[in-house]
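Two proteins follow. First one:
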Amino acid sequence: MDSLVTLIALLHGPDRPGLVARVSGWIFEHGGNILHADQHHDHEAGVFFQRVEWEPQPGTLDADAAAFRAFAAGLGMAVQVTSSASRPRVVMFVSKADHCFHDLALRWQAGEFAGELVAVVGNHADLAGVARGYGLPFHHIPVTAETKAAAEAQQLALLRELGADLVVLARYMQVLSADFLDKIGRPVINIHHSFLPAFAGGRPYHQAHARGVKLIGATAHYATRDLDEGPIIHQDTARVTHRHGVEDLIRKGRDLEKTVLAQAVRWHLGGRVLVYGHKTVVFD
């Protein structure tokens, strides 16, 4: 039996009565069958958010997607419509740390993600061999202060050649320039090894230890030109005490980084993350 192909819509706009009925009515009138629907009302901002997934009539997938976009625009809503049959192309950026890299590669091999991991880009060559062991092409593009602009131009050209739909920074220890992020035209998900907005920037575990925190965390967010301030997708924490040294915090943090980044990538590829201003609405 062929797997079920659905349409997934993420929409938001001014809140007013009857929006849920209008959306569900449109899908019904076009012969669709709603499988999942969830909505959120931001009463302070007066904004309505919705994620709806439905099975269209056979042979109407593309036509219904286009028609729904026009329908939502007529309601004054911003909308994204994707198909469950689409397989976004994902490129992973790495440096030397390998825990997030291995975790994502293994999850991809296990079929956990609604996308295809197509390549790995590293500013160091340390992970070249293991990447190829997973069957993933590895592209070594060194980055120094003097060569940063040229290296980023090479990265952008490679991403265009690969047809990348998403870039995942799996502990990639380089700050992407504002020019790179302006030109890429694709979402970039980063994992930061602290519970943002606390301890942004470098050496967050050392900062946390120096402050004697009782919780450490990890944060997956979309990268923006403002370092470590992009819209947050997912976070998690672990308890620590005065008995834990910096190495203990790093060890505990690695576990958090892997699961938080994997969940953020899974939600993004599943059409569950709606970016709104500096925040996200995640339909989990």
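Second one, unrelated to the first:
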Amino acid sequence: MVFGLFSKGTPLDKTIKKATSENAQSADRVIAMEKLAEDGSHEALLALCRRFSFSATKMIEDEQEKQTAIELLSSKGDDAVDPLHEYMQSALSIAFPLRVLERIAEGERLFEVVDDLLAREEPGYTKDSTRKIQLIEWLGELENVNSRELARRIAPYLQDFDENVRFAAAEGLALRPTEEAAEPLVNALLREEEESMRLKRRAAEILADNNLSLCGRKDEVAALFDDLLSGYKLHRDKLARKK
């Protein structure tokens, strides 16, 4: 005899179904989410992450539920890192999970997850750049982490296929204006095939405002003073705004 052939699922299965059902009542979803956190298994916490994958009909309830998911996952500490990592490997949006990650992981544990996500979103053509942009913006704003390490990871996206990704990378480097950011920004400013004038102008602003090196290419930069960089000058071999 095959036992459980007509079973409707385990209690955990039922809880997962309730927590991830868009048609359930908000209060019922929250209760189910709390049960998943109490269970604490990899399967339960992975399911809890899935609450980030859809939006409830009522915006306020949706925001409250997602914040509840953030708090519940954060309360599990290191136990939630692996389920969170697994979820983000294929999720269409990772903005909310990243907010959890910065709470529960640091040092090598943090970069282990970050570097895997970056490897899955390498610079180049992507049909949907949402994940790239979310990841870059999050890296730029991440607190209590070495700025040089973050700049090194953001800089390659200045050469992405998508102009919005490239601009997001420039904005990320504006928040991490270390010397690791200088050469990539100079390259973006001088790249002949770069068609985005707003990106070139932003690169110039970041270089000038942070007194970053022109990496031995001051003559090439000076050649742009009569056009793109009409509001700039050289000062001690670095780019500066004209007063």
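SUMMARY FIELD: Residues 208 and 239 are 5 Å apart (CA to CA). Confidence is low (pLDDT under 50) at residues 1-7.
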